[in-house]
Each structure stands twice: as structure tokens, then as C-alpha cells.
Amino acid sequence: KKSEPTYRRVLIKISGEALMGSQGFGLHPPTVERIAGQIKNVTAMGVEVCMVIGGGNIFRGLQGSAQGMERTTADYMGMLATVMNALAMQGALESIGVFTRVVSAIPMDQVCEPYIRRRAVRHLEKKRVVIFAAGTGNPYFTTDTAATLRASEMSCEAIFKGTQVDGVYDSDPKQNPDAKRFERISYDEVLMRNLKVMDASAIALARDNKLPIVVFSLATEAGLAGVLRGEGQFTTVG
Ligand code: UDP
User: Fold this and answer.
1) Cα–ligand 1 centroid distance for 165 (angstroms)
2) In angstroms, what CA-CA distances link 154 with 50, 116, 140, 146, 172?
3) Which atom of ligand 1 is nearest to the CA of 53?
4) Of 45, 159, 204, 208, which is most buried with the most CB atoms under 10 A?
């Protein structure tokens, strides 16, 4: 099979939880390294890579506010958590020879670059992996929305959302053995059925910008590069 890349530029979204391994919290360096290796394989295909990493392995705004914190403060803490994850991923990627830039929606000059759209585009053109940190920079949003926003701004052809399952099902495949996986599903159907792909604002933004979302399993044998070549199982929302 020819490994002709079908994509020129993509955004890869992974949740913070994907980085915690089996330890239930925080960062598990071997897991971060494994994902970094998958990203490297994608860059080796000549595809330009944007990344957004969540922060749920460290802090979630909603959880903080449920425990009595002010929502906006808790959300800023969640955004800071995504910066930690971005730095961990940057370190893992650079240690295997992949050039990266972390760009943050909340400027913190000593830690990473501020997000400036034209500069981020330039990094991609120079084949650097650009990791977008601190979400959208605004409370009440999620990193899924940040992923859709940045993918639109960077003119990505698709978002690849890595999850625990190999696509979108009509019911939870962990609860229901008869759950059916969709090959393809429309944005509206995801919203109507309230399927947990991304939050509603992220799905609506993707729909309005005609941005396909490919949901795949991070444990897939085909690997991320394989999924980009159309191998293995996944669901395309679009
Ligand atoms: N967050 C935010 N605005 C954003 C992105 C993230 O306030 O634009 C906060 C929010 O509190 C969220 C936390 O950062 O709970 C971590 O992000 P998310 O829950 O999306 O991470 P994931 O579930 O992907 O690990």
C-alpha cells in the first residue's frame, strides 16, 4: 500500500487523560513518549501537525467549581494544566528529534511563545509541530473548542481526536456489547443524539467551518499515521 499522505495539515487533539497512563492522575512519561513517537511518524509522512492537549489529568474547571471554587478561577487553573501537558509533550517530541513550538493563548513569555496566528502558520510551514496551549484563553470553554478554533485558524483539513474507543458508537460500547460504530455521521446527528464526541460548541464550530472530525483510538494498531492513511477503524464526523 502506498503511503501517499492524504492530508497536508491536521490538528491532533488528545485529552489530558491520555497522558496519565494507568496511574489515574498527572503525567506518565512513558505514555507521553509513546504518543510522541506516534506524532513523529505523522511528521515523517510530511504532514504538518498542530496539537491541542487537554488538562483533565491535572485539573478540570467544572470539578473545581463543583467543590466551591469560583468557576472562572477554576477554569484558568484548567488552562494552566494544559500548559504543563504541552511542555511535557514538547520535551518528549524534541528528545526524539521533532522540532516543536508551544504557543499559549495566555502569554507567559518565560515558558513558551504567545499565540500569534501568523507566527504559528510560519512554524507549520517550517515543519515544526505547533502545540497550542491554554485552550482558547477564555473560561467556560474546553480544549475541544480550542482544537476546533485553532484548526480553523490554521486551515487544517481535519481534526483527529484520539480517545479510548475506536470511533463514535450509538451507545456506550463498554456498557452495551451490541453498540454500533458509525463509519460516518453528520454534525447534526451527533448534536441531536447528544453523542459524546466533543462538546456542543466545538461540534457546532466544526460544522460551521466544514471541518471533519476523525475519532480514533489512541491504542489502535494502525497507529496515528495509519489512521491518517485511512487504515484501521475510526469514525468521521462531517
Ligand atoms: N479550559 C478553559 N478554557 C479553554 C480550555 C480549557 O477554561 O478554552 C479549562 C476548563 O476548566 C477545562 C480545563 O481547562 O476543564 C481542561 O481542559 P479540558 O477539560 O478540555 O481537558 P480534557 O478533557 O481534554 O483533558
Assistant:
1) 20
2) 8, 11, 23, 12, 33
3) 24
4) 159
Q: Which three cell numbers stand for residue 157?
A: 483539513
Of all residues in the chain, the percent with pLDDT exceeding 70 is: 98
Distance 58 CA to ligand 1 centre (A): 10
Q: Residue written as cell 474507543?
A: 165
Q: How far is the CA of 196 from the centre of ligand 1 (A)?
A: 15
φ, ψ dihedrals at 130, nearest 5°:
-105, 120
d(CA 175, CA 43): 36
Give me 186's grid cell. Answer: 453528520
**Which atom of ligand 1 lies nearest, measured to the CA of 139?**
7
Using alpha carbons, list the distances in angstroms from residue 192 to 7, 175, 200, 206, 234: 29, 21, 10, 15, 20
Q: What is the ipTM of this complex?
A: 0.98
Residue pLDDT, tens place only, 48-83: 999 999 999 999 999 999 999 999 999 999 999 999
Q: What is 9-237's CATH number, 3.40.1160.10, 3.90.1010.10, 3.60.15.10, 3.30.70.260?
A: 3.40.1160.10
Q: Could you state, in order of their start, the residue ranges of all structural domains in the chain?
A: 9-237
Q: Is the pTM of this model over 0.90?
A: yes
